[in-house]
Inverse folding.
């Protein structure tokens, strides 16, 4: 009995071992005309394996590229398309430049910091007060999401004052945030709905 662990590694597993074996047989074929017919047959079979992809532009081009990859670029292909270069397939991708700016309070995130800056820059009025109230409630929700424990409103007010560099002070205005039990109950309902 032959086990998969003792067989050659599949180059493109989506086509399976039989296609790979056909490609290897084709590589070993000395007769050029017979080899051409075998290649055309393999392309046709690969196309039949994925009929849902036929509507995609350059479907045939992809098949020829995949055939070249399966053959490890060692099959004398008379492809009607330009084949990919092996260097482009083996090249490592460029590093993604991640934003390394650290948030003052990670459990609130950078979006809250940006929202606080917007609120600080706004003209005084009802709209600014509503935005500050929304930010404070969202901060409390985020705190409870990450810390799973009760938090006093004064703690949120203190963090908001720190984030705004002292420009927003909710302690003096008698602001009351949503109840902790309401936020935790809503979070619990969301978790139950996600599990279903």
């Amino acid at each position: 009995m032959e086990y998969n662990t003792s067989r050659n590694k599949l180059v493109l597993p989506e086509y399976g071992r039989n296609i790979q074996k056909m490609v290897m047989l084709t590589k070993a074929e000395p007769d050029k005309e017979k080899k051409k017919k075998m290649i055309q047959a393999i392309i046709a079979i690969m196309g039949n394996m994925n009929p849902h992809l036929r509507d995609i532009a350059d479907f045939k081009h992809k098949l020829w590229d995949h055939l070249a990859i399966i053959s490890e670029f060692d099959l004398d292909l008379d492809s009607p398309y330009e084949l990919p270069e092996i260097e482009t397939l083996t090249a490592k991708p460029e590093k993604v430049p991640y934003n390394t700016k650290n948030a003052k309070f990670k459990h609130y995130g950078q979006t809250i910091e940006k929202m606080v800056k917007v609120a600080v820059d706004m003209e005084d009025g009802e709209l600014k007060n509503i935005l500050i109230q929304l930010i404070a409630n969202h901060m409390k929700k985020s705190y409870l999401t990450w810390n799973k424990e009760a938090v006093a409103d004064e703690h949120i007010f203190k963090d908001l004052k720190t984030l705004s560099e002292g420009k927003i002070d909710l302690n003096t205005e008698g602001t009351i945030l949503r109840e902790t039990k309401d936020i935790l109950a809503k979070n619990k309902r969301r978790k139950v709905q996600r599990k279903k």
